Amino acid sequence: MIRIETFKLGPMETNAYLLTDESGQKGVVIDPGMKPGPLLKRIKDMEIEAILLTHAHLDHIGGVQELRELKKCPVYLHDAESDWLGSPKLNGSARWPDVTDPIVVEPAEYALDEGQVLEFLGAKIKVFHTPGHSPGSVSFLFDNHLIGGDVLFRLSVGRTDLSGGDWNTLLDSIHGKLFELDDDVTVYPGHGPKTTIGYEKQNNPYI
Known about the structure:
Counteracts the endogenous Pycsar antiviral defense system. Phosphodiesterase that enables metal-dependent hydrolysis of host cyclic nucleotide Pycsar defense signals such as cCMP and cUMP. The protein is an alpha/beta fold.
């Protein structure tokens, strides 16, 4: 069974997630954000199999290069944002100079796509392409857990006013993919507290 730990990183309090196996010796990191010190300290003696990115906005990729160089692990990102890691304009870091220096990261080693099944930590992780907040946004499903980046939040949804964002596309991703999941699936968002699919169906005022 995969265990999930949450780290709030950087000035935007981005949720980075550490998935570990039962031994606690191996892990996968999802969205290592800016100022990743607490996360790096936690994984100091661990083998990290991969870095998975829900999307490539500055607050979700700020710690990628440091973590990648430290652990010699590959990065996975949807091809729709393959150019974003190396472009401060596309990843947004050029837009907020008061928040961070320009972020330039080497390209991802592997592409993510709809329906892809990744095998890490002795488990299968299914990939859903869930654009709207950004064109390459993805969500990761394993067991009854969904790590969804900035698509669906507790009582809110991702913003669509950034590069490549689209409101109707976001709603299609939520209704057509996420809300097709079981109500008891726990959602771990890119910011804020976790929630469930059923709770958001009943209570989210945006959808």
